[in-house]
Amino acid sequence: MEAFVRAVIPRIAADAAIAGVDPRTFELQVRLHLPALSRKALTGWPADRVYDAVRTQALVRAAEIRVGLEDAAFDAHTSLLLGVEKVRRDLTLVRADGSVGRLWFGAVDPWAGHRVQARLHYLRCERADTVMQFGLFLEGARMPLTYLAFSPCDRRYMLDVLNALGVPARPGRVLVLTRVHGLPGIPANLMSLTIGRAVREIKARGTTDLVVTAFNPMLGFNGASFRAAGFTAFASCPVTYSYDAAGFFQTRRTATGATPQRLTTPDNILMARGVTRTARRRLATAARPLRTVPRETYERREPARFGEPDPGDAAWVRRVIGYRGLLQDVWSTETAAPLYVGDGDPQGSGRGQCGVASVWLARRLHADHGMVPLYCVGSVTFATGAHPDVPHHCWIEVGDPRDPRRVIIDLTADQAADSPGPIVFARYTDLLVQGIRYTPLFRQRLDELPADRVWRRFLTLSDLVDRHGTGHAADTGRRDHSRPATA
Q: At 191, is the secondary structure helix, strand, or coil?
């Protein structure tokens, strides 16, 4: 792999100029698509022939990144970095002419995080389960110079390896740093500064013991920024490369019906940083060398924890009522489905909000409770005829789709006039007894939702929830809303 990359450096530089990106950005796309080829091709073909086999995919994706970078650089005010010689640990900018400026650290808005993950990051794929996003900003900027995204750890093998090393890793107490991005031309130490600040913020929230991440040697990464920010390598783990019909890379979480890699590739290196003092001490004394995650364990995709919401549990009923209250306070024409905009519905009405509410709830249950909800689109019918049917509706299910006792949660059951109540929270069989049938036309996993047309409206809703409050007020059950009609 490295010998091939060295042989085609001049072509990478030339094509990077054509695409309008720096050579490293283009090289990443070349490396990302090489596993689509066989070992025989990589070692037996001339280097130019190998390069030509992945050149089109690299050019297209690099050009798309360039379009996103132009807008991002403008919104990040990168022109203010001109003349900056260094950035101090207190985030002071020192310029060659002696003038100083400041960066500030903060949360990244959902719309900005979407732009980074879907358009700027080399994977060009958004993680639907992102729960925290941080970055460093220049004064007055809407986009960050650096960006970090964190998701709950939903892979059991990561927790198992850490626990085997004597590092306590409990479900719900481990975050994964899934996306790292910096705009071209930023000072070299900004990324490690951003990671350090983010870990401090996570520690202040008191809900996390460990942060886990990974770097990919095959893509030319060496983990230097992570090590500078205090991360320790603890295991190696397989990587999956998949490609769509046109040969473009797809992530493991989003690949459906994709062509698998043909090339045997080196493992990722898993790293961890303790957030609490105990976790840091245990990591420092953990046994070496690195543990290895077997491919069969990696392929099983066992979730970090199991569970489902219980309609018979009063605490869960209060929680679901709180979710509805939190959302209805920010529903608007911006978050409503286009068909319902202009209907004159009152503020807080569930009409047209079923899609965004269901996406929000799926993310929330996954992030807070480790559940694996399914986003459903279909119809709701009433056998008694007491209420009008809803021919197009969205809700979530938790549990095996074949299990008649799977849980249905519908935060916008008042989508239709004369609905039995604003919320449905019940098991499928219990609803059938009441003459209520939820029939999905299709179901989608959380990882598939960023490609759905509802996602943009969901980002608006998520932004409004964050601005309205913490986004976690629903768990308190303090809001006074009516009890679910079918709980």
A: helix
Arithmetic mean of pLDDT over the chain: 89
- Nearest by Cα to 191 from 235, 144, 238: 144
Q: Is the pLDDT of residue 52 over 60?
A: yes
Considering only CA atoms, which of 225, 221, 146, 149 is closest in space to residue 186?
146
Question: Which of these, 419, 416, 422, lies nearest to 351 by C-alpha position?
Answer: 416
C-alpha count within 13 angstroms, C-beta hemisphere, residue 88: 8
Number of helices followed by number of strands (H, E) in the chain: 15, 18
Q: CA 288, CA 291: separation in Å to the nearest integer?
A: 8
Q: Are 409 and 425 in contact (CB under 8 A)?
A: yes
Give residue limits of the domains in the chain.
2-64, 77-300, 314-476
User: What is the homologous superfamily of the domain 77-300 according to CATH?
Assistant: Gcn5-related N-acetyltransferase (GNAT) (3.40.630.30)
Cα 58 off chain centre by: 23
Please report the sign of the dihedral spanned by the C-alpha atoms of residue 177, residue 448, residue 327, residue 411.
Answer: negative
Among 128, 110, 134, CA closest to 367: 128
Peptide bond preceding 217 in cis form (omega within 30 of 0): no
Class of the 314-476 domain?
Answer: alpha beta
Q: Is the pLDDT of residue 37 over 90?
A: yes
Q: Which two tokens stand for residue 199?
A: 């870990």
Q: How many CB atoms lie within 10 A of CB 365?
A: 23
Residue in 350, 352, 354, 376 with CA at minimum distance from that of residue 446: 376
pLDDT of residue 258: 81
pLDDT confidence bin for 433, thresholds 50/70/90: very high
What one-letter code names the amino acid at 314?
A: A
Quick check: 347 and 331 in contact, CB under 8 A?
A: yes
